[in-house]
Amino acid sequence: MSQKRYVFDAYAILALIEDEPGAQTIAEIITAQEPELFMSIISLGEIYYILLRKKSEQAAEEVVKNIFAEESLILVEASWKKVKDAARIKAKGGLSYADSLMGSTCFFIPFTDSSIDLWTLKVILWMLLNIALWTGIIE
After folding, report:
1. What is the reported pLDDT for 95?
2. How far lies 139's CA from each of 8, 39, 85, 131, in Å?
3. Are 135 and 88 in contact (CB under 8 A)?
4. 34-71, pLDDT tens digit by residue?
5. Range 5-135 has CATH code 3.40.50.1010
6. Neighbours of 8 (CB within 10 A)
7. What is the pLDDT at residue 13?
8. What backbone torsions phi and psi does residue 55 show, to the nearest 5 degrees?
9. Quick check: 6 and 74 in contact, CB under 8 A?
10. CA distance 21 to 3
11. In the 3-class helix/strand/coil scheme, how is the chain assigned residue by residue?
12. By the 8 A CB rule, do 15 and 51 touch?
């Protein structure tokens, strides 16, 4: 069976570490049999600044250290293409810049029909449709 693939935003990780709504779902995804997890490096920056504000530099550094140590998590670098795509999404309105970058990250992850469950596929398709509408790719 193929690995399931997930793209996390900052709030998925923050929900997990703060034991907020959704934490159990994120924990189940992480502990599932060999999931493939992706997160934009920009989302990591968002986690860092939120923890700096709410907690401390030590707390933020500890979380970042643990994220870098998580072998199943692939941090997606912010290339100019991804940043530019995110800026175009953001310019159309309706999403934060970090969420726009997370959405543009979805375009760079290879998916196969057996690698994701139906619910995840629906969320990704919804996100891609909205990005296409916001950017004017489709009207």
Report:
1. 72
2. 28, 29, 18, 11
3. yes
4. 788 888 888 898 899 899 999 999 999 999 999 999 88
5. yes
6. 23
7. 93
8. -120, -95
9. no
10. 25
11. CCCCEEEECHHHHHHHHHCCCCHHHHHHHHHCCCCEEEEEHHHHHHHHHHHHHHCCHHHHHHHHHHHHHCCCEEEECCCHHHHHHHHHHHHCCCCCHHHHHHHHHHCCCCCCCCCCCHHHHHHHHHHHHHHHHHHCCCC
12. no
Q: Which of 101, 92, 87 is nearest to 138 (CA)?
A: 92
Output the pTM of the full model: 0.66
Show me where the domains of the chain are located: 5-135
**What residue has token string 């159309």?**
92
